[in-house]
Write a structure and sequence with these properties.
There is one protein chain. By secondary structure, the protein is α/β, with parallel strands linked by helices. The protein has helices at about 75-85, 105-115, 130-145, 165-175, 190-200, 210, 215-230, 245-255, 265-270, 280-285, 300-310, 325, 345-355, 360-375, 465-475; strands at about 5-15, 20-25, 30-35, 45, 50-55, 55-60, 65-70, 70, 90-95, 120-125, 150-155, 180-185, 235-240, 260, 395-405, 425-435, 435-440, 445. Strands 1, 2, 3, 4, 5, 15, 16, 17 and 18 form a 9-stranded mixed β-sheet that branches. A 7-stranded parallel β-sheet has the order 6-9-10-11-12-13-14. A two-stranded antiparallel ribbon has the order 7-8. The radius of gyration is 21 Å and the shape is globular. One zinc ion (ZN) binds near residues 184, 239 and 240. Keywords: Hydrolase, Metal-binding, Zinc. Belongs to the metallo-dependent hydrolases superfamily. Hydantoinase/dihydropyrimidinase family.
Length: about 475
Protein backbone atom coordinates (compact mmCIF):
# COMPACT_ATOMS: atom_id res chain seq x y z
CA UNK A 1 0.00 0.00 0.00
CA UNK A 2 1.07 3.51 -0.78
CA UNK A 3 1.98 5.76 2.12
CA UNK A 4 0.65 8.76 0.21
CA UNK A 5 -3.10 9.06 -0.24
CA UNK A 6 -5.43 11.75 -1.51
CA UNK A 7 -9.07 11.41 -0.46
CA UNK A 8 -10.71 13.45 -3.17
CA UNK A 9 -13.94 15.40 -3.49
CA UNK A 10 -15.74 14.36 -0.33
CA UNK A 11 -17.52 16.32 2.38
CA UNK A 12 -15.01 16.54 5.21
CA UNK A 13 -16.79 16.64 8.55
CA UNK A 14 -15.34 17.56 11.94
CA UNK A 15 -17.29 18.07 15.16
CA UNK A 16 -17.37 21.83 14.65
CA UNK A 17 -17.01 22.41 10.90
CA UNK A 18 -17.75 20.77 7.57
CA UNK A 19 -16.52 21.63 4.08
CA UNK A 20 -16.08 20.14 0.64
CA UNK A 21 -12.36 19.36 0.52
CA UNK A 22 -9.63 16.91 -0.33
CA UNK A 23 -7.52 15.27 2.37
CA UNK A 24 -3.86 14.61 1.71
CA UNK A 25 -2.18 11.94 3.85
CA UNK A 26 1.51 11.09 4.09
CA UNK A 27 3.30 8.71 6.46
CA UNK A 28 0.28 8.15 8.65
CA UNK A 29 -0.41 11.85 9.23
CA UNK A 30 -2.95 14.22 7.67
CA UNK A 31 -0.89 16.89 5.90
CA UNK A 32 -3.48 19.07 4.18
CA UNK A 33 -7.23 19.58 4.11
CA UNK A 34 -8.29 21.90 1.29
CA UNK A 35 -10.35 21.96 -1.92
CA UNK A 36 -8.85 20.95 -5.29
CA UNK A 37 -5.43 19.71 -4.18
CA UNK A 38 -2.97 18.82 -6.96
CA UNK A 39 -0.72 15.88 -6.16
CA UNK A 40 2.14 13.90 -7.74
CA UNK A 41 1.64 10.70 -9.78
CA UNK A 42 2.71 8.32 -7.02
CA UNK A 43 -0.17 9.34 -4.77
CA UNK A 44 -3.08 6.92 -4.46
CA UNK A 45 -6.34 8.73 -5.12
CA UNK A 46 -9.54 7.65 -3.42
CA UNK A 47 -12.70 9.16 -4.87
CA UNK A 48 -15.03 10.36 -2.11
CA UNK A 49 -17.50 12.35 -4.21
CA UNK A 50 -20.96 12.25 -2.64
CA UNK A 51 -19.56 10.75 0.54
CA UNK A 52 -18.66 11.90 4.05
CA UNK A 53 -15.01 11.92 5.11
CA UNK A 54 -14.81 11.80 8.92
CA UNK A 55 -12.47 10.95 11.78
CA UNK A 56 -12.38 7.22 12.52
CA UNK A 57 -14.55 6.14 15.40
CA UNK A 58 -13.11 5.87 18.89
CA UNK A 59 -14.78 3.31 21.12
CA UNK A 60 -14.25 4.32 24.75
CA UNK A 61 -15.46 1.03 26.21
CA UNK A 62 -14.35 -2.48 25.23
CA UNK A 63 -13.35 -5.75 26.88
CA UNK A 64 -11.09 -7.80 24.61
CA UNK A 65 -9.80 -11.16 25.87
CA UNK A 66 -11.00 -10.34 29.36
CA UNK A 67 -11.24 -13.08 32.02
CA UNK A 68 -14.79 -12.80 33.39
CA UNK A 69 -17.39 -15.05 35.03
CA UNK A 70 -15.33 -18.22 34.69
CA UNK A 71 -14.48 -17.68 31.02
CA UNK A 72 -12.86 -15.09 28.75
CA UNK A 73 -14.47 -12.65 26.29
CA UNK A 74 -14.20 -14.22 22.85
CA UNK A 75 -12.47 -11.52 20.79
CA UNK A 76 -8.70 -11.12 21.04
CA UNK A 77 -7.02 -7.78 20.56
CA UNK A 78 -6.50 -8.85 16.95
CA UNK A 79 -9.95 -10.18 16.06
CA UNK A 80 -11.80 -7.49 18.01
CA UNK A 81 -9.82 -4.73 16.39
CA UNK A 82 -10.15 -6.22 12.90
CA UNK A 83 -13.92 -6.18 13.45
CA UNK A 84 -13.68 -2.58 14.68
CA UNK A 85 -11.80 -1.47 11.56
CA UNK A 86 -14.34 -3.21 9.31
CA UNK A 87 -16.96 -1.09 11.06
CA UNK A 88 -15.15 2.25 10.92
CA UNK A 89 -13.66 2.36 14.41
CA UNK A 90 -9.93 3.11 14.38
CA UNK A 91 -9.15 3.31 18.10
CA UNK A 92 -10.55 1.87 21.30
CA UNK A 93 -9.90 2.15 25.01
CA UNK A 94 -9.93 -1.25 26.67
CA UNK A 95 -10.46 -2.07 30.33
CA UNK A 96 -7.34 -3.57 31.88
CA UNK A 97 -8.01 -5.46 35.13
CA UNK A 98 -5.79 -5.93 38.15
CA UNK A 99 -4.35 -9.43 38.58
CA UNK A 100 -5.15 -10.62 42.12
CA UNK A 101 -5.64 -6.99 43.09
CA UNK A 102 -2.32 -5.93 41.55
CA UNK A 103 -2.79 -3.03 39.10
CA UNK A 104 0.81 -2.91 37.87
CA UNK A 105 0.72 -6.64 37.09
CA UNK A 106 -2.61 -6.14 35.30
CA UNK A 107 -1.13 -3.42 33.14
CA UNK A 108 1.77 -5.70 32.14
CA UNK A 109 -0.61 -8.50 31.18
CA UNK A 110 -2.79 -6.17 29.08
CA UNK A 111 0.25 -4.65 27.39
CA UNK A 112 1.30 -8.17 26.40
CA UNK A 113 -2.15 -9.16 25.11
CA UNK A 114 -2.25 -5.97 23.03
CA UNK A 115 0.98 -6.70 21.18
CA UNK A 116 -1.11 -8.43 18.50
CA UNK A 117 -3.03 -5.21 17.85
CA UNK A 118 -3.83 -4.04 14.32
CA UNK A 119 -5.14 -0.60 15.34
CA UNK A 120 -4.36 2.08 17.92
CA UNK A 121 -5.58 1.56 21.46
CA UNK A 122 -5.40 2.87 25.00
CA UNK A 123 -6.25 1.47 28.43
CA UNK A 124 -8.42 2.25 31.41
CA UNK A 125 -7.55 0.41 34.62
CA UNK A 126 -10.10 -1.06 37.02
CA UNK A 127 -9.75 -0.51 40.76
CA UNK A 128 -11.36 -3.40 42.65
CA UNK A 129 -9.97 -2.93 46.18
CA UNK A 130 -8.26 -0.24 48.21
CA UNK A 131 -4.85 -0.32 49.91
CA UNK A 132 -1.47 1.47 49.78
CA UNK A 133 -0.21 -0.68 46.91
CA UNK A 134 -3.28 0.22 44.81
CA UNK A 135 -2.72 3.92 45.47
CA UNK A 136 0.98 3.63 44.56
CA UNK A 137 0.19 1.68 41.39
CA UNK A 138 -2.37 4.25 40.30
CA UNK A 139 0.33 6.89 40.57
CA UNK A 140 2.78 4.82 38.50
CA UNK A 141 0.15 4.11 35.85
CA UNK A 142 -0.69 7.80 35.49
CA UNK A 143 2.85 9.16 35.65
CA UNK A 144 4.67 6.48 33.67
CA UNK A 145 2.22 4.31 31.74
CA UNK A 146 -0.18 6.67 29.98
CA UNK A 147 -3.37 5.75 31.86
CA UNK A 148 -5.63 8.64 32.89
CA UNK A 149 -8.85 6.84 33.86
CA UNK A 150 -9.83 4.29 36.50
CA UNK A 151 -13.06 2.28 36.65
CA UNK A 152 -14.81 1.58 39.95
CA UNK A 153 -17.53 -1.08 40.11
CA UNK A 154 -20.45 -0.49 42.47
CA UNK A 155 -21.80 -3.88 41.32
CA UNK A 156 -20.48 -7.48 40.93
CA UNK A 157 -20.53 -8.10 44.68
CA UNK A 158 -17.81 -10.51 45.79
CA UNK A 159 -15.79 -9.91 42.60
CA UNK A 160 -15.06 -6.37 41.47
CA UNK A 161 -17.34 -4.36 43.77
CA UNK A 162 -15.87 -1.64 45.96
CA UNK A 163 -17.52 -0.17 49.06
CA UNK A 164 -18.42 3.53 49.21
CA UNK A 165 -15.40 4.00 51.49
CA UNK A 166 -13.06 2.43 48.96
CA UNK A 167 -14.68 4.39 46.14
CA UNK A 168 -14.14 7.65 48.05
CA UNK A 169 -10.45 6.89 48.54
CA UNK A 170 -10.17 6.14 44.83
CA UNK A 171 -11.95 9.37 43.89
CA UNK A 172 -9.52 11.38 46.02
CA UNK A 173 -6.55 9.63 44.44
CA UNK A 174 -7.90 10.29 40.95
CA UNK A 175 -8.30 13.96 41.79
CA UNK A 176 -4.75 14.16 43.14
CA UNK A 177 -3.34 12.49 40.00
CA UNK A 178 -5.44 14.33 37.40
CA UNK A 179 -7.14 11.09 36.38
CA UNK A 180 -10.80 10.59 35.48
CA UNK A 181 -12.82 8.23 37.70
CA UNK A 182 -15.26 6.00 35.81
CA UNK A 183 -18.11 4.21 37.51
CA UNK A 184 -20.18 1.08 36.82
CA UNK A 185 -23.30 2.27 38.59
CA UNK A 186 -25.59 -0.44 39.93
CA UNK A 187 -26.24 -1.14 43.62
CA UNK A 188 -24.34 -4.43 44.00
CA UNK A 189 -25.88 -5.44 47.33
CA UNK A 190 -29.39 -4.95 45.99
CA UNK A 191 -28.52 -6.77 42.73
CA UNK A 192 -27.29 -9.78 44.72
CA UNK A 193 -30.49 -9.78 46.79
CA UNK A 194 -32.63 -9.40 43.67
CA UNK A 195 -30.86 -12.27 41.90
CA UNK A 196 -31.42 -14.67 44.81
CA UNK A 197 -35.07 -13.67 45.13
CA UNK A 198 -35.89 -14.00 41.42
CA UNK A 199 -34.06 -17.33 41.13
CA UNK A 200 -35.83 -18.72 44.21
CA UNK A 201 -39.16 -17.75 42.65
CA UNK A 202 -38.29 -20.28 39.95
CA UNK A 203 -37.37 -17.78 37.25
CA UNK A 204 -34.11 -19.33 36.07
CA UNK A 205 -33.97 -18.26 32.39
CA UNK A 206 -32.40 -15.16 30.78
CA UNK A 207 -35.55 -13.11 31.53
CA UNK A 208 -34.58 -13.36 35.20
CA UNK A 209 -31.53 -11.20 34.48
CA UNK A 210 -33.30 -7.87 33.79
CA UNK A 211 -35.98 -8.66 36.41
CA UNK A 212 -33.33 -9.12 39.09
CA UNK A 213 -31.59 -5.76 38.57
CA UNK A 214 -34.14 -3.11 37.55
CA UNK A 215 -33.29 0.45 36.57
CA UNK A 216 -34.02 1.87 40.02
CA UNK A 217 -30.77 0.22 41.18
CA UNK A 218 -28.87 1.92 38.37
CA UNK A 219 -30.42 5.27 39.24
CA UNK A 220 -29.56 4.87 42.92
CA UNK A 221 -25.91 4.03 42.25
CA UNK A 222 -25.56 6.75 39.60
CA UNK A 223 -26.92 9.38 41.97
CA UNK A 224 -24.73 8.13 44.82
CA UNK A 225 -21.60 8.10 42.66
CA UNK A 226 -22.27 11.62 41.37
CA UNK A 227 -22.81 12.92 44.90
CA UNK A 228 -19.65 11.29 46.23
CA UNK A 229 -17.62 12.71 43.33
CA UNK A 230 -19.19 16.11 43.96
CA UNK A 231 -18.27 15.81 47.66
CA UNK A 232 -14.66 15.16 46.61
CA UNK A 233 -14.98 17.87 43.93
CA UNK A 234 -13.76 15.74 41.07
CA UNK A 235 -15.36 15.07 37.68
CA UNK A 236 -17.01 11.70 37.13
CA UNK A 237 -17.63 9.58 34.02
CA UNK A 238 -20.56 7.15 34.14
CA UNK A 239 -19.99 4.16 31.84
CA UNK A 240 -22.77 2.26 30.07
CA UNK A 241 -25.71 4.54 30.97
CA UNK A 242 -28.71 2.30 30.26
CA UNK A 243 -31.73 3.90 31.89
CA UNK A 244 -33.87 6.99 32.37
CA UNK A 245 -33.20 6.61 36.09
CA UNK A 246 -29.46 7.14 35.55
CA UNK A 247 -30.13 9.81 32.94
CA UNK A 248 -32.24 11.81 35.40
CA UNK A 249 -29.36 11.88 37.89
CA UNK A 250 -26.84 12.95 35.24
CA UNK A 251 -29.18 15.51 33.77
CA UNK A 252 -29.94 17.09 37.16
CA UNK A 253 -26.27 17.20 38.14
CA UNK A 254 -25.20 18.76 34.86
CA UNK A 255 -27.93 21.39 35.09
CA UNK A 256 -26.29 22.37 38.41
CA UNK A 257 -22.88 22.65 36.73
CA UNK A 258 -21.52 19.43 38.24
CA UNK A 259 -18.99 17.85 35.89
CA UNK A 260 -20.41 14.47 34.88
CA UNK A 261 -19.86 12.65 31.60
CA UNK A 262 -22.48 10.08 30.59
CA UNK A 263 -21.66 7.31 28.14
CA UNK A 264 -24.57 5.42 26.59
CA UNK A 265 -23.66 2.32 24.60
CA UNK A 266 -24.92 1.05 21.26
CA UNK A 267 -27.06 -1.73 22.76
CA UNK A 268 -28.78 0.66 25.18
CA UNK A 269 -29.67 3.02 22.34
CA UNK A 270 -30.81 0.29 19.96
CA UNK A 271 -32.57 -2.45 21.94
CA UNK A 272 -35.26 -3.00 24.56
CA UNK A 273 -35.76 -5.76 27.12
CA UNK A 274 -38.35 -7.74 25.17
CA UNK A 275 -35.35 -9.57 23.67
CA UNK A 276 -34.89 -11.48 26.94
CA UNK A 277 -38.22 -13.31 26.60
CA UNK A 278 -37.72 -16.20 24.23
CA UNK A 279 -38.39 -19.94 24.46
CA UNK A 280 -34.97 -20.59 22.93
CA UNK A 281 -32.31 -20.01 25.60
CA UNK A 282 -29.59 -18.84 23.20
CA UNK A 283 -31.88 -16.40 21.41
CA UNK A 284 -32.30 -14.56 24.70
CA UNK A 285 -28.96 -15.21 26.44
CA UNK A 286 -26.98 -13.36 23.78
CA UNK A 287 -28.46 -10.09 25.06
CA UNK A 288 -27.53 -10.61 28.71
CA UNK A 289 -25.26 -7.83 29.91
CA UNK A 290 -25.03 -5.50 32.90
CA UNK A 291 -26.63 -3.11 33.49
CA UNK A 292 -29.31 -4.92 31.47
CA UNK A 293 -31.11 -3.75 28.34
CA UNK A 294 -34.10 -1.78 29.68
CA UNK A 295 -37.81 -1.76 28.76
CA UNK A 296 -38.87 0.16 25.65
CA UNK A 297 -38.76 3.91 26.24
CA UNK A 298 -35.37 3.99 27.93
CA UNK A 299 -33.71 3.53 24.52
CA UNK A 300 -35.54 6.54 23.06
CA UNK A 301 -34.79 8.68 26.12
CA UNK A 302 -31.09 7.86 25.82
CA UNK A 303 -31.17 8.82 22.14
CA UNK A 304 -32.83 12.12 23.01
CA UNK A 305 -30.29 12.85 25.75
CA UNK A 306 -27.46 12.14 23.33
CA UNK A 307 -29.03 14.46 20.79
CA UNK A 308 -29.41 17.36 23.22
CA UNK A 309 -25.97 16.97 24.79
CA UNK A 310 -26.88 15.67 28.25
CA UNK A 311 -24.96 12.52 27.29
CA UNK A 312 -21.73 13.17 25.43
CA UNK A 313 -20.38 10.10 23.64
CA UNK A 314 -21.22 6.53 22.64
CA UNK A 315 -19.32 3.35 23.51
CA UNK A 316 -20.15 -0.30 23.01
CA UNK A 317 -19.08 -2.31 26.08
CA UNK A 318 -18.05 -4.87 23.44
CA UNK A 319 -17.60 -8.06 25.49
CA UNK A 320 -18.65 -10.95 23.23
CA UNK A 321 -19.31 -14.55 24.29
CA UNK A 322 -20.12 -17.51 22.06
CA UNK A 323 -23.28 -19.60 22.43
CA UNK A 324 -21.14 -22.27 24.04
CA UNK A 325 -19.94 -19.77 26.64
CA UNK A 326 -23.44 -18.41 27.24
CA UNK A 327 -24.63 -22.00 27.85
CA UNK A 328 -22.89 -21.92 31.24
CA UNK A 329 -26.06 -20.21 32.47
CA UNK A 330 -28.55 -22.58 30.81
CA UNK A 331 -30.20 -23.42 34.14
CA UNK A 332 -29.30 -20.27 36.08
CA UNK A 333 -29.35 -16.78 34.56
CA UNK A 334 -26.83 -15.69 37.21
CA UNK A 335 -24.17 -17.79 35.45
CA UNK A 336 -24.69 -16.43 31.91
CA UNK A 337 -21.49 -14.52 31.08
CA UNK A 338 -22.46 -10.83 30.96
CA UNK A 339 -21.62 -9.09 27.70
CA UNK A 340 -22.52 -8.61 24.04
CA UNK A 341 -21.03 -7.47 20.72
CA UNK A 342 -20.93 -3.97 19.24
CA UNK A 343 -17.41 -2.84 18.33
CA UNK A 344 -18.11 -3.53 14.64
CA UNK A 345 -21.68 -2.22 14.60
CA UNK A 346 -21.53 0.98 16.69
CA UNK A 347 -20.71 3.44 13.90
CA UNK A 348 -23.46 2.15 11.63
CA UNK A 349 -26.07 1.87 14.39
CA UNK A 350 -25.44 5.42 15.59
CA UNK A 351 -25.66 6.69 12.02
CA UNK A 352 -28.96 4.92 11.54
CA UNK A 353 -30.55 5.74 14.90
CA UNK A 354 -29.33 9.31 15.20
CA UNK A 355 -28.55 10.76 11.75
CA UNK A 356 -30.99 8.94 9.48
CA UNK A 357 -33.75 9.63 12.01
CA UNK A 358 -32.95 13.34 11.84
CA UNK A 359 -32.07 13.60 15.55
CA UNK A 360 -28.55 14.96 14.98
CA UNK A 361 -26.35 16.52 12.31
CA UNK A 362 -23.38 14.79 10.72
CA UNK A 363 -21.09 17.07 12.78
CA UNK A 364 -22.77 15.83 15.95
CA UNK A 365 -22.27 12.28 14.72
CA UNK A 366 -18.55 12.94 14.52
CA UNK A 367 -18.58 14.48 17.99
CA UNK A 368 -20.37 11.61 19.73
CA UNK A 369 -18.53 8.80 17.95
CA UNK A 370 -15.02 10.25 17.96
CA UNK A 371 -14.18 13.84 18.93
CA UNK A 372 -15.74 13.93 22.40
CA UNK A 373 -13.92 10.74 23.32
CA UNK A 374 -10.58 12.17 22.19
CA UNK A 375 -11.25 15.36 24.16
CA UNK A 376 -12.41 13.61 27.32
CA UNK A 377 -9.39 11.29 27.36
CA UNK A 378 -6.99 14.11 26.50
CA UNK A 379 -5.72 12.86 23.13
CA UNK A 380 -7.35 15.52 20.94
CA UNK A 381 -6.42 16.60 18.23
CA UNK A 382 -4.03 13.68 17.64
CA UNK A 383 -7.27 11.69 17.45
CA UNK A 384 -10.85 12.74 16.78
CA UNK A 385 -10.26 15.23 13.94
CA UNK A 386 -9.57 15.47 10.22
CA UNK A 387 -7.05 18.28 10.58
CA UNK A 388 -3.47 18.83 9.39
CA UNK A 389 -1.18 17.18 11.95
CA UNK A 390 -3.75 14.68 13.21
CA UNK A 391 -3.26 10.92 12.85
CA UNK A 392 -4.66 9.71 9.54
CA UNK A 393 -7.50 7.66 11.04
CA UNK A 394 -10.32 8.36 8.60
CA UNK A 395 -13.55 6.81 7.39
CA UNK A 396 -15.48 7.35 4.19
CA UNK A 397 -19.22 6.86 4.55
CA UNK A 398 -21.57 6.43 1.62
CA UNK A 399 -24.99 7.68 2.80
CA UNK A 400 -26.84 5.88 0.01
CA UNK A 401 -25.56 2.35 0.37
CA UNK A 402 -27.53 -0.14 2.45
CA UNK A 403 -26.16 -3.24 4.20
CA UNK A 404 -27.49 -5.88 6.58
CA UNK A 405 -25.80 -6.99 9.81
CA UNK A 406 -25.36 -10.74 10.26
CA UNK A 407 -23.23 -13.24 12.17
CA UNK A 408 -22.65 -14.84 8.76
CA UNK A 409 -20.67 -11.85 7.54
CA UNK A 410 -19.40 -10.04 10.65
CA UNK A 411 -15.74 -10.13 11.68
CA UNK A 412 -16.01 -10.67 15.43
CA UNK A 413 -15.34 -14.32 16.38
CA UNK A 414 -18.70 -15.17 17.97
CA UNK A 415 -21.49 -17.19 16.31
CA UNK A 416 -24.29 -14.73 17.13
CA UNK A 417 -24.96 -11.02 16.72
CA UNK A 418 -27.40 -9.02 18.83
CA UNK A 419 -28.19 -6.91 15.74
CA UNK A 420 -28.81 -9.89 13.44
CA UNK A 421 -30.88 -8.84 10.42
CA UNK A 422 -30.68 -5.06 11.01
CA UNK A 423 -30.62 -3.27 7.68
CA UNK A 424 -28.82 0.05 7.74
CA UNK A 425 -28.66 2.81 5.17
CA UNK A 426 -25.29 4.54 5.26
CA UNK A 427 -22.21 2.41 4.85
CA UNK A 428 -18.60 2.92 5.81
CA UNK A 429 -16.89 1.80 2.62
CA UNK A 430 -13.33 2.74 3.47
CA UNK A 431 -11.40 2.81 6.74
CA UNK A 432 -7.95 4.37 6.87
CA UNK A 433 -5.90 3.57 9.97
CA UNK A 434 -2.51 5.23 10.54
CA UNK A 435 -2.57 6.35 6.90
CA UNK A 436 -3.17 2.84 5.50
CA UNK A 437 -6.33 1.62 3.82
CA UNK A 438 -7.37 -1.29 6.04
CA UNK A 439 -10.99 -1.69 4.93
CA UNK A 440 -11.86 -1.16 1.30
CA UNK A 441 -15.36 -2.01 0.08
CA UNK A 442 -15.58 -5.29 1.94
CA UNK A 443 -11.90 -6.19 1.82
CA UNK A 444 -10.11 -6.25 5.16
CA UNK A 445 -6.35 -5.75 5.04
CA UNK A 446 -4.99 -5.59 8.58
CA UNK A 447 -1.59 -6.27 10.03
CA UNK A 448 -0.98 -7.97 13.37
CA UNK A 449 1.32 -5.81 15.47
CA UNK A 450 0.68 -2.57 13.57
CA UNK A 451 -1.48 -1.12 16.35
CA UNK A 452 0.16 1.38 18.67
CA UNK A 453 -0.43 2.12 22.32
CA UNK A 454 -1.67 5.71 22.65
CA UNK A 455 -0.69 7.09 26.05
CA UNK A 456 -3.31 9.37 27.59
CA UNK A 457 -1.83 12.21 29.64
CA UNK A 458 -3.28 13.28 32.99
CA UNK A 459 -5.42 16.38 33.27
CA UNK A 460 -4.25 19.66 34.77
CA UNK A 461 -5.47 20.53 38.27
CA UNK A 462 -8.65 22.04 36.85
CA UNK A 463 -9.34 19.20 34.41
CA UNK A 464 -9.10 21.86 31.73
CA UNK A 465 -9.99 19.72 28.71
CA UNK A 466 -13.06 18.32 30.36
CA UNK A 467 -14.00 21.72 31.73
CA UNK A 468 -13.98 23.25 28.25
CA UNK A 469 -15.94 20.36 26.80
CA UNK A 470 -18.57 20.65 29.50
CA UNK A 471 -18.81 24.41 29.19
CA UNK A 472 -19.40 24.13 25.46
CA UNK A 473 -22.07 21.50 25.86
CA UNK A 474 -23.82 23.15 28.76
CA UNK A 475 -24.38 26.28 26.71
CA UNK A 476 -26.76 24.20 24.63
CA UNK A 477 -28.27 22.40 27.58
CA UNK A 478 -31.89 21.36 27.28
CA UNK A 479 -33.99 19.29 29.63
CA UNK A 480 -34.18 15.67 28.56
CA UNK A 481 -36.76 15.09 25.88
CA UNK A 482 -38.65 11.95 26.91
CA UNK A 483 -40.58 11.52 23.69
CA UNK A 484 -41.39 7.86 23.29
CA UNK A 485 -42.07 7.01 19.69
O1 LIG B 1 -22.08 -7.03 30.93
C1 LIG B 1 -21.06 -6.35 30.83
N1 LIG B 1 -21.18 -5.04 30.83
N2 LIG B 1 -19.86 -6.96 30.73
C2 LIG B 1 -18.62 -6.30 30.75
C3 LIG B 1 -18.21 -5.86 32.11
C4 LIG B 1 -18.75 -4.52 32.48
O2 LIG B 1 -19.40 -4.40 33.51
O3 LIG B 1 -18.55 -3.56 31.76
ZN1 LIG C 1 -19.38 -2.25 33.74
ZN1 LIG D 1 -37.00 -16.05 17.47
ZN1 LIG E 1 -17.89 -2.79 30.26
Amino acid sequence: TSSKILVKGGTVVNADYQQNADVYIEDGIIKLVAPNLKVADDVRIIDAAGKFVMPGGIDPHTHLEMPFMGTESADSFFTGQAAALAGGTTMHIDFALPIDGDLAAGYDIWAKKAKKSCMDYGFHMAVTAWNDKVAKDMEILVKEKGINSFKFFLAYKGYFMVTDGEFLQGLRKCKELGALPLVHAENGDAVAEGQTRIFEQGITGPEGHPLSRPSVLEGEATGRAIKLAHFVNTPLYVVHVMSIDALDEISRARAQGIRVVGEPIASGLALNDSVHWHSDFQAAAKYVMSPPIRPAGHDKALQAALANGVLQLVGTDHCPFTSEQKAAGKHDFRKIPNGLNGIEERMHLVWDLMVNSGKISVKDYVRITSTACAQIYNIYPQKGAVLPGSDADIIILNPNRTTTISAKTHHTTIDTNVYEGWTIKGNIEVTISQGKVVWDNGQLNVEKGAGRYIPMPPFGPLFDGLEKLDAARLRSYNPVDRTIV
